[in-house]
Amino acid sequence: MFLIFNSIAIPVLLRAFLAFFTAVVLSLLLGNTTICLLKKFQQHGQPIRDDGPQSHIVTKQGTPTMGGLLILGTSIISILLFANVTYHFVWVSLLVLVVFAIAGFIDDYIKVTKQTPNALTAKAKLFVQFMTAVVAVTIITAATPSASSTVLSVPYFKVLINLSWLYIPFAVVVISGTSNAVNLTDGLDGLASGLLIMTFIFFCIIAYIVGSDLASFFSFVYIPRSAEISVVCASLVGSCLGFLWFNAPKAKVFMGDTGSLSLGAILGTVAVMLKQEILLAVVGGVFVMETLSVMIQVFWFKKTGKRFFRMAPIHHHFEQLGWRETTVVIRFWIIGFVLALAGFIALIRF
């Protein structure tokens, strides 16, 4: 079965659709069982931040975390079934998913066992993130044709900039930064998972274009065999969609660092593989906004002793303004959808 489904004789788009539906079905079938097991293991659920919105202490107390295990488990099964794992890009994707998920799992485990919102130190997380990203970027660069291995694609203007030796540290920051950005965004029911669905759909389409004859037509850098990443993205879309069924307000389970760190990392990795790091910043603009809000808040507080936002990340700021949680989530989804459409403008030939 494994060899049949992974056969290159089966069109990539067909395998992507099969991977998507498999991931969705598996997530829906295994969701309740996974939640029950997590509840059994986590007697008090995820600890809620005392310095966060006070309403969360009431509404979210006792909700289990580590729901990322459901996303990772179902997506990895779909990838192994339908993607050609002999390709560098596919098994590097699996490597990034697994290593970042382990780091997130350790963080979640400490949180639920010690009932503290703070587990691994920022330095410990960054060390694992950077080391894994360095390995991933080195392999990706080696597997990419030398003519385009260190280039930065500037969409809309159809310009390529050769970063030379600066490319590897730049790509490492992209992967690590995206991992942390998604982690910061995962603070409201359904917010991160909904946005991830949109961004992975976008990159699923872009991966197919970049890895096919369509690349030159749309003035994209052609990356051989990168079309296989569309299967990886489709699997992740299906898993996130199935997870959203249980994570939609009021959430039965949280993604946790297990999911947010690994999904953010693979999103950044996909952008690096496809040479579309700038498009990631556009389509993932909400993730960028969430990260900038935290940076601005910290900088402003150190500078003035006052808060720039009522609370950071910025989704909590709007909650403090009186917006309902579902209102914040849906409006941020709308922004994410508009940004995804803005990303597709890069396909237009001027």
Provide keyphrases for this structure.
350 residues; two-stranded antiparallel ribbon
Kindly describe this structure.
By secondary structure, the protein is an all-alpha fold. The protein has one domain. It is 68% helix and 2% strand. It contains 15 helices and 2 strands. It has a two-stranded antiparallel ribbon with strand order 1-2. β1 and β2 form a beta hairpin. α5 packs antiparallel against α11. The longest helix is centred in the first third of the chain and has 30 residues. The radius of gyration is 20 Å and the shape is globular. The N and C termini lie far apart (45 Å).
Anisotropy-based shape: globular
* Arithmetic mean of pLDDT: 90
- Runs with pLDDT <50, length 5+? none
Secondary-structure element pattern, one letter each = HHHHHHEEHHHHHHHHH
Tell me the Rg in angstroms.
20 Å
| Domain module count | 1
* Quaternary class: single chain
Helical content, roughly?
55-70%
List the total number of helices: 15
Span of the ends, CA to CA: 45 Å
As a percent range, the share of strand residues is: under 5%
Count of individual beta strands: 2
| Largest sheet properties | 2 strands, antiparallel
Structural class: mainly alpha
Short description:
This protein has helices at residues 2-5, 12-41, 54-59, 68-82, 88-114, 122-143, 167-185, 191-210, 214-217, 229-247, 256-273, 277-283, 285-304, 314-320, 325-344, and strands at 151-154, 159-162. With 350 residues, it is an all-alpha fold. It has a two-stranded antiparallel sheet with strand order 1-2.
